[in-house]
Amino acid sequence: MTRAQFAKESASTGEWKRQGNRFTGRISPESASVSGAGPDEDGLWPVEPGRYRLVVSLACPWAHRSVIVRKLLGLEDAISLAIVDPIRDEQGWRFTLDPGGQDPVLGISYLSEAYLGTDPEYAGRVTVPAIVDTVTGLVVTNDYPQITLDLSTEWKAFHKPDAPQLIPAERAEMDALIADIYTDVNNGVYRCGFATSQEAYEQAYDALFARLDELEQRLADREYLLGDTLSEVDIRLFTTLVRFDAVYHGHFKCNRVKLTELPNLWAYARRLYQLPGFGETVDFDQIKRHYYLTHDQINPTGIVPKGPDPRVWES
């Protein structure tokens, strides 16, 4: 078996098994805590505009979701944004894009400082997105699937007047799609790229393209995955699709076809890209530099490809 990019998350079969989320606190108006206090006995933090800081990498698809949702809902003034350098070193995500190499609000140089300040025994990968409390410096959550849902449901009092309803009243169809897309597409590209056996890679590859074929057919007669209305599931699929040709097709060996060769998915992805909150939050330079420069087991030369031309997204 070849050497794994992240050994702790590679099974003996060569399959990539993503680590769980360590911090799962939630910010909710149902919290019994008073303003400025920590979580209540149920782990709920009080909703307070200006108190919490969303830490993201523009390269990361999981973090990118939260950036889009925050912008669509108009929460920029309620929840501040910190952007880490797309290049991780041995200590993880760095604030080297900020003057002096420190986040100006949290006063830390690495996101790992907040992780270890919250759990001194933490030994897993430090991940984004993470919401950090600026009062205590503690990590509230790195539970990326829940973060975007909570922005829609728990922060309603601070949404802009024309904010979209990203979660339908009847959630069953959306939740089922979210689960399938996560397994085979969102995480599926990683299961291809980080596989350390041929069998594990091919299983992930087959599942990925079977799901993409299904989504291609689904989009033959509709504008969005649930019909004519944008929802959370569209955002979750978009952040993988927008990275597909730039990194997953080559770097992660997801190379049966390019996104541009799937006409319905390609038209759908471009429609989303050209909506407010989508294309303006995409940084192809940071995306490519992150994947090609930090996955040294996959790309030991560290060469970052020049293409593809991002202007095709504007057609």
TrEMBL record:
Q: Which UniProt keywords apply?
A: Transferase
Q: What's the name of the protein?
A: Putative glutathione S-transferase
State whether keyword Transferase applies: yes
Query: In chain numbering, where does the site feature Lowers pKa of active site Cys fall?
Result: 248, 291
Region spans: Disordered: 1-41
Where's the GST C-terminal domain? 167-291
The answer to whether keyword GTP-binding applies is no
Pfam families in the cross-refs: GST_C_2, GST_N_2
- Residues engaged in binding glutathione: 93, 125-128
Got a GO cellular component term for this one? cytoplasm
Which PROSITE patterns does UniProt cross-reference here?
GST_CTER
Q: Where is the active site?
A: 60, 190
* Single annotated GO MF: glutathione transferase activity
